[in-house]
Design goal:
- It is a single chain.
- This protein has two helices and nine strands.
- It is mainly beta and 144 residues long.
- It folds into two domains: 1-53, 2,3-Dihydroxybiphenyl 1,2-Dioxygenase, domain 1 (Roll); 68-144, Signal recognition particle alu RNA binding heterodimer, srp9/1 (2-Layer Sandwich), CATH 3.30.720.110.
- The longest helix is centred in the N-terminal third of the chain and has 10 residues, at 13-22.
- The chain starts with 6 loop residues before the first strand and ends with a strand.
Length: 144
């Protein structure tokens, strides 16, 4: 079980579960469709999807797009392949595939990444590691 498993409120949890499994490559671990609940995972990451209802845990009424101010980074083995798959399926990427390097003290952590929005507007950043280096990278976007 993952250490952190976000639960995302959905306007149509069944449709969202289909999006995650059919397009994003998540596995359906278990579900309670009658309650509008789905537990999904991919490569060590997990997410729960819950049908929004009056009993949902929320500080305010949900308004689309949901998840404003937050995005989830999901580490996978091959982000470029998933980006290509989504593009081939005609699904728009919120941010295109890119190489990015993030400074951490004297090191830079590199990753290829892209961002896609799910049906409710939750932003999902899929990333694959390019490793670390102590030299300032000469390619990609550098975040210092």
């Amino acid at each position: 079980m993952a250490s952190l498993t976000p639960e995302l409120g959905c306007t149509d949890a069944a449709a969202s579960a289909a999006f995650y499994t059919d397009h994003l490559g998540f596995n359906l671990d278990y579900a309670r469709p009658g309650q509008g609940f789905y537990h999904l995972s991919r490569e060590g990451s997990a997410v729960m999807l819950e049908q929004l209802s009056p009993e949902s845990w929320a500080l305010a009424p949900p308004e689309p797009p949901l998840g404003r101010g937050m995005h989830l980074q999901i580490l996978i083995a091959d982000a470029p392949a998933l980006a290509a798959r989504l593009t081939a399926q005609g699904l728009p990427l919120f941010r295109p595939l890119e190489e990015a390097w993030y400074r951490d003290g004297a090191r830079f952590h590199g990753q290829t990444q892209f961002v896609v929005a799910d049906p409710d507007g939750y932003l999902l950043r899929f990333a694959s590691s390019l490793g670390t280096t102590h030299e300032r990278p000469t390619t990609g976007r550098i975040v210092e």
